[in-house]
Specification:
The chain is an alpha/beta fold. Helices cover 37% and strands 12% of the residues. The protein has a four-stranded parallel β-sheet. The longest helix has 25 residues. The termini are close together. The N terminus is likely disordered. It binds 4-nitrophenyl phosphate. 4-nitrophenyl phosphate binds next to loops.
């Protein structure tokens, strides 16, 4: 018998971050949301995504990201891009950078006391062979599928890590 309600566990607040917030981080938010929904744990998570830049604020995810996600049964069309804000470092428990450049910028922006919250997403996918989700924006549709493959691996690893650090009652 499995009880994965995590009813006595606090909420995990996670922010997925890339450069434009229209390709990788919206896909990461969508994939991770589906993973925790599958596990019956969605009530214990607060999920969002944001970009380092402001170019696409207010826009829905890139149509190629929407199509790639739809190919895996995920609807990410309702998301709207926003830029990372200073308050995010206080509010969220973890800020998950899609690549090293995002990680460096986030770390520089973070108040000293909250720098430990900035993580590189693919560190939760140690067998992926890379620490960066490649930016698919200027490439072909295949890049979005490759990004999703990496994001799926990291999403499973991230949930496993969070559950290990905060076991659920069974
Ligand atoms: P993302 O991709 O960081 O995965 O959302 C990009 C989207 C837009 C731009 C760069 C990367 N841009 O330069 O507009």
């Amino acid at each position: 018998m499995t009880d994965r309600s995590m009813s006595d566990s606090p909420t995990h607040k996670l922010l997925f971050v890339c450069l434009g917030n229209i390709c990788r981080s919206p896909m990461a938010e969508g994939v991770f949301r589906a993973v925790v929904q599958r596990e019956g744990l969605i009530d214990r998570f607060e999920l969002d995504s944001a970009g380092m830049g402001s170019w696409h604020v207010g826009q829905a995810p890139d149509t190629r990201a929407q199509a790639a996600a739809a190919g895996r049964g995920l609807d990410i069309s309702g998301q709207a891009a926003r830029q990372v804000a200073l308050g995010d470092f206080d509010y969220f428990d973890m800020l998950l950078a899609m690549d090293e450049s995002n990680f460096e910028e986030l770390t520089q922006l973070a108040p000293a006391a909250q720098q430990h919250k900035v993580r590189q997403f693919l560190d939760f996918a140690p067998h992926a062979g890379t620490r960066d989700v490649p930016d698919p924006f200027f490439g072909e549709a295949e890049g979005f599928d490759h990004a999703l493959d990496l994001i799926e691996q990291a999403s499973e690893g991230l949930l496993t890590s969070l559950l290990r650090n905060q076991p659920v009652s069974r």
